[in-house]
Amino acid sequence: xxxxxxxxxxxxxxxxxxxxxxxxxxxxxxxxxxxxxxxxxxxxxxxxxxxxxxxxxxxxxxxxxxxxxxxxxxxxxxxxxxxxxxxxxxxxxxxxxxxxxxxxxxxxxxxxxxxxxxxxxxxxxxxxxxxxxxxxxxxxxxxxxxxxxxxxxxxxxxxxxxxxxxxxxxxxxxxxxxxxxxxxxxxxxxxxxxxxxxxxxxxxxxxxxxxxxxxxxxxxxxxxxxxxxxxxxxxxxxxxxxxxxxxxxxxxxxxxxxxxxxxxxxxxxxxxxxxxxxxxxxxxxxxxxxxxxxxxxxxxxxxxxxx
Length: 307
Known about the structure:
It is built from nine helices and ten strands. By secondary structure, it is of the alpha/beta class.
């Protein structure tokens, strides 16, 4: 039986991470499993205490915050599985989740990465993710299928290729990872899994959605909905994603669309909401993309504000 490495990243949320570990213990019956928890530079190091409480789990510690991609990449480097199941620490497993995802990757040679259906933990009958539509590279827009809808099985027929995996829960086969490489760490936060999916597609694999597998997500535990951190990285990385993945003609259309429509619209919204600080983040995000190469590891955001 193929081995699955479950990888999750903790950042200042040991209680949330423990809830995930408990849900795996209580629901996961997959027999060949290893669990890896990466502490991503938390203010207080929880690894010694967690190691004592969970001796069968592998705990790793980074002294600095490596971001979503960097933390997961650290876990992947330590993993020994045939499949790597990357899950947010604010998720909770359901029965046969792992088995269903493994079956997709084993039975479909072209499937390189697969995500389960995701529902909101606080609203357990409500869908967060049932696949993604393809990306419109002219606008850097696509749609998360089923988001905020009550789950009545309306998307349970969508097993198969989809636009993108969801970063909260995605299982990748080792063969696809070996060909596509690990996630680009210069995104740090947001869009890195979408960029990764593009690299996986370029390596000859498909992105799949499996509605028979279900996971619950405690959305917005880590970052505020309108924080400077989120606004900066969402804008910076949206542009960076286009720079890295869009055809040349689509890049030109996107730049015109972003400069002529998105920026003025966002500024008006910030003024209306009395969030003048976010105007600064908008211009910082744009300026970063003008002054930095698409491979730059300079984050453009003070590390001391990431904790």
